[in-house]
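Exercise 7.
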Amino acid sequence: MRLSRILLALVLACSVSAVAQQKKPPKQQVQKTPATPEKGAATEQAAPTTQQQQQEEKEKQPSQPQHPPEQQQPQAAPAPGAGPFGGGPGKPFHFDMTEHPPVVTHHQITVGGKLLKYTATAGRLPIRDMEGKIQAEMFFVAYTLDGADLAHRPVTFSYNGGPGSASIWLHMGALGPRAVALVEPYGWMPESPYHLKDNPDTPLDKTDIVMVDAVGTGYSRPADQTAARHYWSLRGDIEAFGEFIRSYITKYDRWQSPLYLLGESYGTTRSAGLSGYLFDKGINFNGICLLSTVLNFETLVFSPQNDVPYPLILPTMTMIAAYHHKLAPELMANIDKTRDDAVNFAMGDYWAALNKGDALTPQERANIVDKVAMYTGLPKNIVDLANMRIDVQTFTKWLLADEKVRVGRLDGRYKGPDPGPWMDPFQFVDPSSSATQGPFTMVFNQYIRNELN
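Solution. The predicted structure, written as tokens, is:
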């Protein structure tokens, strides 16, 4: 069950769109209280500058709760469909950076037979430049256990990747105390209307959780086009998350707490840079969780000039083919042994053969084609035409071609029809994204406007 939820959380998709605020009151089991600041911030471990001290004093000022801020609109209505916010190249946009107090609600959940009472805090934190001007606002939802000793209670900052994905997938599919209700046991898309359920696999019994949206995703916004260009870069993205974490642990008195990072896909790349960036500023982490790791992009780029990814992904293809019963009966009889054999072949004979290239004899090449077809479940002629190198698009297109359906890219258990021409070389559909994007988007918008409002 936990694996199913984690797999669903791997979906990397576009940011969640926001619609108008609803006025529906929260459910009865949710107790809404004024947002008051935590105790005075602990003495910082790194000596702050005068500017930092002034900024942190401002962050610690008390605030009163209100409805979550509406998605801010640009001052001028740009041409439709141009750019992520309608601006497009050469068309400036601007978002109102007025600070709004967060919304605080109280909830409870049973995890592992134990009742947990927790507080949810939803809002934005400002990201300022060296002059103190707000250049962006980053949206977050924090889940904190009531009555915990902050000196010993861990806090985990979590985010998806992309780059360009909001944290909705980890939030509503794996880590948050509330999750999208999908069809069990495999997480298929249910019929609409979609709804939430308690998440028994949330790690809230072990750590507080802060879900953070990157600038330009979810409800996080850059101030203008200039700020967007800065934060939509490798260095700018790291700076934004670094400032968010510094501001959060200051505002909510968590300098003394054990700190952790949990990133997915490009979020693992971000975590690697973020941990070093904050280390240089005196903020250290107790641990970093890497989910769907991307620390070496050479392992992801499938091309005739780069053979590294092909043997690394072959064992995964073996297990997906086994799930869909596309392996030979003798391989299906003992899946654990088959997986081990696939790993040994991939990192041994297969890797050596790819490195030999045209130096392979016709018989050696035929043997490798046979083995790759055996471990991937693909027809031999497809493996031969692909020159023994099976990338993700080839695999998902041809594994179930006899059924005229594609296999999921982000979750290989999914399958679905291709709405375009089957032989279109540029057509690429992911059934796993198609099955999850709608339920996650609609449920999250309902959740943020009702249970967290």
